[in-house]
Amino acid sequence: MKFEDAATQIDPEIYQRFKAALELGKWPDGRKLTREQKEICLQAIMIYEAKHQMVDGDRIGYVDTAKKASSCGTDKPDDTQVDTDNGIESIRILH
């Protein structure tokens, strides 16, 4: 059986356990996830979510760019320069 096939057939409970393990960085018994385990869990979660057509807001790693707010609640600080041709912002760091 291929990995993709197995990932689409996992239980919703296993899916939730994988998500929790990724969020906490450890398994329910307290063992730390290895880098390889994190990658496998993430791949399985992404395949599961795509197969089950989950709502974007419920998907792992989803960032709603429509609600993008400026940092610290300000629009543009005085020391921010915007290159309107390239859409690049540069900031000046004060020491």
Can you describe this structure?
The protein is mainly alpha-helical. It has a domain at 1-63. It has 3 helices and 2 strands, in the order αααββ. It has helices at 3-8, 12-24, 35-51, and strands at 80-83, 88-91. It has a two-stranded antiparallel sheet with strand order 1-2. Strand 1 and strand 2 (88-91) form a beta hairpin. Helix 2 (12-24) crosses helix 3 (35-51). The longest helix is centred in the middle third of the chain and has 17 residues, at 35-51. The radius of gyration is 20 Å and the shape is extended. The mean pLDDT is 77.
Defining traits:
95 residues, mainly alpha, two-stranded antiparallel sheet, 3 helices
Helix count equals: 3
Q: Would you identify the regions where 5 or more consecutive residues have pLDDT less than 50?
A: none
Helix content: 25-40%
Order of helices and strands: HHHEE
The tally of strands reads 2
Instruction: Kindly estimate the percentage of residues that lie in beta strands according to DSSP.
Output: 5-15%
Quaternary state of the chains: single chain
Within the largest sheet, what's the order of strands? 1-2
Biggest sheet record: 2 strands, antiparallel
Rg, rounded, reads 20 Å
CA distance, first residue to last residue = 57 Å
Please describe the topology of this protein.
Elements: H1 3-8, H2 12-24, H3 35-51, E1 80-83, E2 88-91
Antiparallel strand pairs: 1-2
Helix pairs in contact: 2-3
